[in-house]
Amino acid sequence: MTAYDTALFWFRRDLRDEDNAGLFHALANARRVHCVFVFDREILEALPARADRRVEFILAGVAELRERLRSHGGGLRVLHAHAREAVAALARELGAGAVFANEDYEPAARDRDAAVAKTLEGSGARLHLAKDQAIFARDEVLTQAGAPFTVFTPYKNAWLRLVNAYYLRGYPVEKYAGRLAPEPAGAALPTLEGLGFAKTNLSTLALPTGASGARALLADFLPRLSRYHEARDFPAMKGVSYLSAHNRFGTVSIRTLAREAWQAKGEGAATWLSELIWRDFYFQILHHHPHAATGAFKRQYDAIRWPGLPEHLAAWREARTGFPIVDAAMRQLHATGYMHNRLRMVVASFLVKDLLVDWRDGEEWFWDTLVDADPGSNPANCVWTHLTPARGPGSDQIEIGTLAGSRAWQSREQSHDLAEFVGHLRQLPGVRYQFMESMDD
Ligand SMILES: Cc1cc2nc3c(=O)[nH]c(=O)nc-3n(C[C@H](O)[C@H](O)[C@H](O)COP(=O)(O)OP(=O)(O)OC[C@H]3O[C@@H](n4cnc5c(N)ncnc54)[C@H](O)[C@@H]3O)c2cc1C
């Protein structure tokens, strides 16, 4: 017995048919399920450049997803429209009693979803949202006093006490895949040009797209998981998973990743799981404190007046600070849309603590250029790196120092990857202390 005759499933940042919680709920509760993805004009028009790797990454993921749904006898309608109006209009056209989707914790997405829910209500339909992006979200991990955590370590300890196989189980979409409805005959996939965007260098990068790309990256990473805790400190080593863009757009299930880490024993797996928990932590920060998407978690830090010069910000963005590791990392960002975590920490710290430029200017540049740019992780990590490194976003301590002496700084001489972006590094065996020299050279 199903609750609805017809339902619509709305893909957003969950571009996969495997282990998709919202899709599973739609299929379990309706006799026929149509699927839609909307290239939302509201989002696309706000992007700063007309060549954007993220749009291309999403388009490739959507194309693969459509083929997968077709292989189950279903299909995917792909619209280029304003999602706020288009989703409810499509539901009406299809006679869908409900729209199913996965929760999105970004303030703008929550606002959009509330508007869609209201319009649907007007025509007697409902919006059902499922948890899919995170293992624990909203109020699932609270302090003993019932308040949201603001400090990571106690949050992580509570998360680890709570987690079990139930929370990490997959959703067997394939069980009900026969209920997927095909798309109308002749419905075409938009082209990049049709969306108003030009091709980037994405296809030349070591970032395979779609759910198949995520699977390939995970298969490559798992044999390295046991050494993650050591290797992740060295940007020149292949120590991390490179899965962040897939985590951002949901081409991989977070339950699959967390299960792999949780079931494996050892320090490498525990450290990687901890990184995945940071992601949940920032989602719940965003849920409880939506202002953290655009400002400091502690609002008083927004009042800091940063004396940094616009020309220093420009030099940082354009990778001409004269400090090899900073310039190499910024060139890598420009060339690939990716930057290793330790380098993100180095360049973000350098911008604020050495150049005294407002962290929000750096965050904005990251937001515009990172393929994995995320409103939960990006601002929060920027604030964490700059202002509250001692104890996380809940801390009252502001530490203005440098990352001098950290392993990431020390690793730069070994970095062949970095040398690729700053060719002269190879000729500079004595660059060890250069980063503290003047910017005016
Ligand atoms: C200044 C700054 C800005 C950042 N901006 C972003 C951002 O916009 N989007 C983003 O996904 N990550 C961001 N990070 C976190 C981290 O640097 C990236 O997630 C990581 O480098 C991605 O590489 P990976 O997939 O190989 O990570 P791995 O080391 O393999 O980690 C696995 C996954 O865990 C999650 N993760 C890892 N570190 C963090 C972290 N510190 N916070 C939250 N999640 C984490 C990511 O989803 C990542 O894919 C930022 C870090 C800093 C210091």
Structural write-up:
- With 441 residues, the protein is α/β, with parallel strands linked by helices.
- Among the domains are: 129 residues, Rossmann fold, CATH 3.40.50.620; 136 residues, DNA Cyclobutane Dipyrimidine Photolyase, subunit A, domain 3 (Orthogonal Bundle), CATH 1.10.579.
- It is built from 19 helices and 5 strands.
- Strands 3-2-1-4-5 form a 5-stranded parallel sheet, with helices on both faces.
- Helix 1 links the parallel strand 1 and strand 2.
- The longest helix is centred in the middle third of the chain and has 22 residues.
- The chain is globular.
- It starts with a strand and ends in a 20-residue tail after the last helix.
- The C terminus is likely disordered.
- The protein binds flavin-adenine dinucleotide (FAD).
Quickly give the CATH architecture of the domain at 292-427.
Answer: Orthogonal Bundle
Computed CA radius of gyration, to the nearest angstrom: 22 Å
Label the structural class: alpha/beta
Strand order of the largest sheet: 3-2-1-4-5
Bound small molecules, which ones? flavin-adenine dinucleotide
For the biggest sheet, the summary is: 5 strands, parallel
Cα separation of the termini: 74 Å
Principal-axis shape: globular
Helix-residue proportion: 40-55%
CATH superfamily of the domain at 292-427: DNA Cyclobutane Dipyrimidine Photolyase, subunit A, domain 3
Portion in strands: 5-15%
Could you state the order of secondary-structure elements as H and E?
Answer: EHEHHEHEHEHHHHHHHHHHHHHH
Instruction: Tell me the number of strands.
Output: 5
- CATH topology heading of the domain at 292-427: DNA Cyclobutane Dipyrimidine Photolyase, subunit A, domain 3
- Alpha plus pi helix count: 19
Could you tell me the mean pLDDT?
89
Give the uncertain stretches in residue-range form: 388-417, 428-441
What is the CATH C level class of the domain at 292-427, in words? Mainly Alpha
